[in-house]
């Protein structure tokens, strides 16, 4: 295990792209892993390559960016249960108070597969974009879940891996601010243009904050964070990012 070698769970969304930039900024070798799990909209996966290519051209990060791994889970998750991300179900809050976009076990599975790849590749750090601050209420994004996962994986694999979640205590405005700090306007533009958040897979409507339907919970979070960040930025009298 090499201490400053890392594996980033990279979906092609805003949060995981920011985490990938965060890892490239601090570690000497960074690989990525993406999962195919029967998600309704593969548009997010299609964003992965352009984002990787874009990151490689910022601040010499290309020399640090390593292999990309794709794990195809087929219909495993979709077959277990219908959620609004894997079936044509409505996005709503369920009786248990969870959004219908929750895919049970998803992040737990992702970390398990990622840890197996990291084990093979000798990568000590495993990085994910989970966030407990400004999130959709997914229980597998909680800090306690990730800490428990780290313990279970380290025991089960007899390694001392570190699961890192740089966005855990950042709201979406702080995530945009981190983006600018890591890679300046080039990185902000890359995230706006090429990452995807919208649950409906909308790539036709372009807003200041990127593409999306503008109405689903993921678009709502992304837009609200962008607007708070821009308001804070103008308050601090900094030069505009655009
Ligand atoms: Zn949307």
Can you put this structure into words, describing what you see?
The chain has 242 residues and is of the alpha/beta class. Helices cover 43% and strands 15% of the residues. It contains eight helices and seven strands; from the N terminus they run E-H-E-H-H-E-H-H-E-H-E-H-E-E-H. Strand 4, helix 6 and strand 5 form a beta-alpha-beta unit. It binds zinc ion. Zinc ion binds next to helix 8.
Strands of the widest sheet, in order across it, are 3-2-1-4-5
- Based on helices, strands and strand pairing, what is the structural class? alpha/beta
The rounded Rg comes to 17 Å
Mean of pLDDT: 90
Treating each run of at least 4 consecutive H or I residues as one helix, how many helices? 8
Our estimate of the beta-strand percent is 5-15%
Q: Identify the CATH class of the domain at 2-170.
A: Alpha Beta
Query: Which ligands appear in the coordinates?
Result: zinc ion
Helix content: 40-55%
First-residue to last-residue Cα separation: 41 Å
Shape: globular
Spell out the helices and strands N to C.
EHEHHEHHEHEHEEH
What layout of secondary structure does this protein have?
Elements (H helix, E strand, L loop, with lengths): L1 E8 L4 H13 L2 E8 L6 H4 L1 H9 L8 E8 L3 H5 L25 H16 L1 E5 L15 H15 L4 E3 L7 H23 L11 E2 L2 E2 L5 H19 L7
Parallel strand pairs: 1-2, 1-4, 2-3, 4-5
Antiparallel strand pairs: 6-7
The structure holds zinc ion.
Zinc ion binds next to helix 8.
